[in-house]
Fold this sequence. Notes:
The structure is a single chain. The protein is of the alpha+beta class. The chain has helices spanning 90-98, 118-129, and strands at 5-10, 16-24, 30-35, 41-46, 57-64, 68-78, 81-85, 101-105, 110-114. Strands 1-2-3-4-7-6-5-8-9 form a 9-stranded antiparallel beta sheet, with helices on one face. A hairpin with a 3-residue loop joins strand 5 (57-64) and strand 6. Helix 1 runs antiparallel to helix 2.
Amino acid sequence: xxxWHSGTVNNQQGQFSYCVAQRGFNNGRTLLxxxxxxGEINLAVGLPTAGMPRQNHWPVTIEIDGNFKRERxxxxxxxxxxxxxxxxxxxxxxxxxxxxxxTVTGPSDSVSFKLSSVxxxxxxxxxxxxxxxxxxxx
Length: 138
């Protein structure tokens, strides 16, 4: 469970939609970091047994290493999955790749993820999106 796995996701027509890096953690939670060819970044947090009503939304704070913050809206894409759209926030992308800990805080809960070793996966995603089809996207 210590490894980040990356890959591409296609739309229903079989065309490229986005790249994603994901990792499961020992507490059963999952973090996904996605980026499309327009540079838009999504974070997805898997929360098993959360039972959230689909499409509900909540304000959240994204924090990296205690010194970088963004205020966003999280949407329950599924009963166990929150998605946080970040637009083309390249500073966030850079901080995710170099940071040690990501914390997402909502109105009633907070979850933290260790970011160690994600930098390499994000570099490969960036290379792939920029057209390098030799990038190591598994």
